[in-house]
Write a structure and sequence with these properties.
With 342 residues, the chain is an alpha/beta fold. It contains 12 helices and 10 strands. The model has no long low-confidence stretch (mean pLDDT 97).
Length: 342
């Protein structure tokens, strides 16, 4: 059994002003697609080298307080033999772990999906915790159409799975990150995204309460309210911030200490600009920050190109993106910073 003090200590280490979370939990197929963009084979050694590069970036802890790892990474070590979770902790970054087993079609609900991975979760979490993980993450996804998607069945089923995962995590002394992602595929409007996001979040928090999850000892990783990527015109950062804050204030209890947004297909610059706009709207009940994957890593990946000689250049690219998002998390980012040298 966990104690509230244990969970609170992890929350305190992650939720820090000017800092966010690096999502480095890409599954095997996902990281293979990322590596393909730079013509690098997704071998175990290349994945280890790349994630070692990320976690050993000097001064990364100035802007990154936590890192979400993939199961494989928990067992990997640096060239010097230091386990990667231990490297993260030594750098002042809390290690976490993705625990869901991916999404599959939801039966009898065409177009909807459900996330797997609840079977054996408690035992897996015990092992992950022994390997250094102090928080976990579970992602649910919601496809959007003008009227029919997501179905009520999908909204309720994914909320139940997220709540069960969060309850098991807290019971094991692991802080749960709850990630309901409303996908941006399609041409739906900003208003439709807001409608779906609000319905999803209402159901998620109803389920969390039903399973007696302590809101104070969890983090929320939602998508921002944005129109579908095929919709024209796209929303401005100010429009994204206005709609996102409106939905969050209607659906997310003030007891939740932190909301760490996913980037959800936004470019690195878009994700930073939107986060900055969110934090310029004045004080909110929650700490608003980031938990970005590709929007943090893409410049580093392009700089690395799989070559050991490019490690320092790649780390500089990661640190710059982390610095800009750290500024955005306190509403202090400007577009001029993109071209500034440090």
């Amino acid at each position: 059994m966990s104690t509230p003090d244990e969970l609170q200590a992890t929350i305190g280490a992650i939720v820090q002003k000017g800092k966010g979370i690096l999502a480095a939990d890409e599954s095997g197929p996902t990281i293979a697609r990322r590596f393909k963009t730079i013509a690098v084979d997704s071998t175990e050694d290349n994945r280890r080298a790349y994630r070692s590069l990320l976690l050993s970036t000097p001064d990364l802890c100035r802007y990154i307080s936590g890192v979400i790892l993939y199961e494989e990474t928990l067992t990997q070590s640096t060239d010097d033999g230091e386990p990667l979770p231990q490297l993260a902790a030594r750098q002042g970054i809390v290690p976490g772990i993705k625990v869901d087993a991916g999404k599959i079609p939801l039966a009898l609900a065409p177009g909807d999906e459900i996330t797997q991975g609840l079977d054996g979760l408690a035992e897996r979490l015990k092992g992950y915790k022994q390997q250094g993980a102090r928080f976990a993450k579970w992602r649910a996804v919601y496809n959007v159409s003008d009227t029919t998607l997501p179905s009520r069945a999908a909204i309720e089923a994914n909320a139940e799975a997220l709540a069960r995962y969060a309850a098991v995590s807290q019971d094991q002394g692991v802080v749960p990150i709850v990630e309901p992602e409303v996908l941006i595929d399609g041409d739906h409007t900003l208003a439709r995204c807001a409608e779906v996001t609000q319905a999803v979040l209402h159901e998620v928090f109803r389920a969390l309460a039903r399973h007696r999850v302590a809101f104070e000892h969890m983090l929320l990783k939602p998508s921002m309210v944005v129109p579908g990527k095929a919709h024209a015109p796209q929303a401005t950062p100010e429009e994204v911030a206005s709609e996102t804050i409106r939905v969050l204030r209607r659906a997310v209890p003030a007891a939740v200490p932190g909301i760490n947004f996913l980037s959800g297909g936004q470019s690195p610059v878009e994700a930073t600009a939107n986060l900055d706009a969110l934090n310029r709207r004045g004080p909110q009940p929650w700490h608003l920050s980031f938990s970005y994957g590709r929007a943090l890593q893409e410049p580093a990946l392009q700089a690395w190109q799989g070559r050991p000689a490019n490690v320092l250049q790649a780390q500089e690219a990661l640190l710059k993106r982390a610095r800009l998002n750290g500024a955005a998390s306190v509403g202090a980012y400007s577009a001029d910073m993109e071209n500034a040298s440090y």
